[in-house]
């Protein structure tokens, strides 16, 4: 067995242990399938994770819809829809995937391993949806609910903040408040069958890609991209606040109590 194969097995063992901590003891029969990228399946006889990803997308949407209707009783249909989009878009799923090092557990073909596919947002998001599906098959809806609650725990607060506004409008306001032109959107790619495609869209702010998103239509993909850009802006604002607070604390004069203590010692 090669070192690469050993690393993959170790990463999968860690991830499976993590899933069992979340959803409870028991076998997860299609776990390896959920982590098999199509590029690897093309080089072997193993099935890829695309069928599981298809099922997981539906299970994820159901579980998140349940959570939102339970926890946001005041929200109307439009707000609930916007919050759900914030929680099930590829960026939100990839955020959890990176935190759990899921990329290390994905089997990729030789060409994909040579590139950056392991950390690409859509590859990670597909793997998360496939994991939701295999847990659903192994533990039923209750197990899937437990996993989905962990997946969306961090972006849940951001979704609540954005649920009252259309994310594209909110992003435009924030960008123009900084004196920049309105964001523009462009389609990066499309995958899946022609009758049910998934669009990948990026939003451009200034001359930079501010966020990417996926959706079953261009409109939904643009909303997801705007949500991703807003989440990045929010994170940057938090980091700036922390940096400012650190500077303030570092340059603040010693308190009178500390001074008097120092004088007494002298």
List the helices and strands and how they pair.
Elements lengths: L2 H21 L7 H4 L3 H4 L8 H22 L5 H12 L1 H10 L10 H5 L6 H42 L4 H11 L6 E8 L6 E8 L2 E8 L2 H34 L4 H10 L1
Antiparallel strand pairs: 1-2, 2-3
Structure explained in plain terms:
With 266 residues, the protein is mostly helical. The chain has 2 domains: 3-163, Ribonuclease iii, N-terminal Endonuclease Domain, Chain A (Orthogonal Bundle), CATH 1.10.1520.10; 169-250, Double Stranded RNA Binding Domain. It has helices at 3-23, 31-34, 38-41, 50-71, 77-88, 90-99, 110-114, 121-162, 167-177, 218-251, 256-265, and strands at residues 184-191, 198-205, 208-215. A 3-stranded antiparallel β-sheet has the order 1-2-3, with helices on one face. The longest helix is centred in the middle third of the chain and has 42 residues, at 121-162. The protein is globular and about 55 Å long.
Assign the CATH class of the largest domain: Mainly Alpha
Q: Mean of the pLDDT scores?
A: 86
Helix content: 55-70%
Q: List segments where confidence is low: pLDDT < 50 over at least 5 consecutive residues.
A: 255-266
Name the helix and strand elements from N-terminus to C-terminus, one letter apiece: HHHHHHHHHEEEHH
How is the largest sheet built, in terms of strand order? 1-2-3
The name of the CATH superfamily of the largest domain reads: Ribonuclease III domain
The shape, in one word, is globular
- The share of residues in extended strands comes to 5-15%
Q: Notable features of this structure?
A:
single chain, 266 residues, mainly alpha, Ribonuclease iii, N-terminal Endonuclease Domain, Chain A, Double Stranded RNA Binding Domain, 3-stranded antiparallel beta sheet, 3 strands, 9% strand, disordered C terminus
């Amino acid at each position: 067995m090669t070192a690469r194969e050993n690393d993959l097995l170790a990463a999968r063992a860690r991830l499976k242990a993590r899933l069992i901590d979340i959803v409870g003891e028991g076998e997860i029969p299609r776990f390896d399938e959920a982590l098999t990228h199509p590029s690897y399946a093309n080089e072997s006889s193993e099935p890829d994770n695309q069928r599981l990803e298809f099922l997981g997308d539906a299970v994820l949407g159901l579980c998140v819809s349940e959570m939102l209707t339970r926890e946001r009783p005041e929200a109307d249909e439009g707000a609930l829809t916007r919050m759900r989009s914030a929680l099930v878009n590829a960026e939100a799923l990839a955020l959890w995937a990176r935190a759990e090092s899921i990329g290390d557990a994905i089997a990729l073909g030789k060409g994909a391993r040579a590139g950056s596919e392991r950390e690409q947002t859509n590859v990670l998001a597909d793997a998360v949806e496939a994991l939701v599906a295999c847990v659903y098959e192994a533990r039923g809806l209750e197990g899937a609910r437990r996993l989905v609650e962990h997946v969306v725990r961090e972006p849940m607060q951001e979704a609540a903040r954005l649920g009252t506004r259309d994310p594209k409008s909110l992003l435009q306001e924030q960008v123009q408040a900084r004196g920049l032109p309105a964001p523009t959107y462009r389609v990066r790619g499309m995958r899946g069958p022609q009758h049910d495609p998934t669009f990948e869209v990026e939003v451009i702010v200034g001359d930079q890609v501010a966020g990417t998103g996926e959706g079953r239509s261009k409109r939904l993909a643009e909303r997801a991209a705007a949500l991703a850009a807003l989440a990045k802006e929010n994170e940057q604002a938090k980091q700036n606040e922390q940096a400012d607070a650190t500077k303030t604390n570092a340059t603040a004069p010693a308190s009178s109590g500390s001074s008097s203590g120092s004088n007494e010692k002298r």
